Amino acid sequence: MTKRSDEYSRTLTKYVIGFLASLALTMFAYALVSGRILTGDSLLLVIGGLALVQMIVQLFFFLHMADESRPRFRLVSFGFMLSILVIVVAGSLWIMYHLNYNMMGMSAAEKDTYMTSQKDKGF
Amino acid sequence: MWGRLSLDALPHDMITIGGVVGGGLALLAAVAALTYFKKWRWLWTNWLTSLDPKKIGVMYLVVATIMLLRGLADASMLRAQQAIFATSDAGPISSDMFQQVFSAHGTIMIFFVAMGALFGLLNLIVPLQIGSRDVAFPMLNSISFWLFVAGMVLMNVSLAVGEFSTAGWLAYPPLSGLEYSPGTGVDYWIWSLQIAGIGSLLSGINFLITIFTLRRPGMTLKKMPIFIWAVIGCLLLVAFAFPILTATLSLLSLDRTIGTHFFTSTMGGNPMMYVNLIWAWGHPEVYILVLPAFGIFSEIVPVFSKKRLFGYTSMVVALMAITILSFTVWLHHFFTMGAGANVNAFFGIMTMVIAIPTGVKVFNWIFTMFRGRVTFATPMLWFMGFVVTFTIGGLTGVLLAVPGIDFQVHNSLFLVAHFHNMIIGGVLFGFFAGVTYWWPKFTGFRLHEGLGKIAFWCWLIGFMLAFLPLYALGLMGAARRIDGYDASLGWQELFVVAGIGMLVILVGVLFQVLQVAYSVWKRRELRVGSDPWGGRTLEWSTSTPIAEYNFAQLTPVTHRDEFWEQKRPGHNKQAAPALTSIQVPKNTSLGIVIGMLAGVIGFAIIWHIWWLAFVCLVATIVTVIVATLREDTERIITVDEIVETEKRLRGATS
Amino acid sequence: MSTLALRDLKLLNFKTNSGFWLYLMTDCILFASLFATYIVLHGGTAGGPTSRDIFELPMALTETIILLTSSFTCGLALLALRQENLKQLVVWLGVTYVLGIAFLTIELTEFSSLIQAGHGWQQSAFLSAFFTLVGTHGLHIFIGLLWLFTMVIVLFKRGFTPKLKRQLGLFALFWHFLDLVWIFIFTVVYLMGVMPS
Question: Which domains are seen in chain B, by residue range?
Answer without folding.
Answer: 39-588+633-653 (1.20.210.10)
